[in-house]
Design brief:
The protein is α+β, with helices and mostly antiparallel strands. It is built from 4 helices and 8 strands. It has a single domain, classed as Gcn5-related N-acetyltransferase (GNAT) (Aminopeptidase).
Length: 154
Amino acid sequence: MSAALKDPSFWLRPMVEADVEAVLAVEEAAYSHPWTDVIFRDCLRVGYCCWVALSGGQIIGYGVMSAGAGECHILNLCVHPERQGQGLGRRILRRLLAIARAHGADTALLEVRVSNGRAIALYESEGFGEVGRRRGYYPAEGGSEDAVVMATAI
């Protein structure tokens, strides 16, 4: 679970407390309503599976997942907007799912904004399908936005 995954353009390793500031910068660049540093620190504190993607020594993406009772929940998967579309999100997702399988999970769940077509396409291409909707799940400018709930067997 702690081995780094190497790639010519980037590599993955477990997130540590010292990464939170850089992770937060990616989060704020990507989302209009970002998680806070407290949320990331809490995820680390409770032992969630948290990984970062680095390129040139800089954090360019990350994934956060909880796992237990035979399933995993992808809580946050993000790549800096300047690095999106290069396969980094797919590599992070696959790493998280491999870790979940190694810990006995057979199902993966996640939520994604209905407006995030790029992410939905990624998840569908990795075998996820829509299993429901959460009305008003995400904060949005002027109100809220629904989430698509997606799941796959792993």
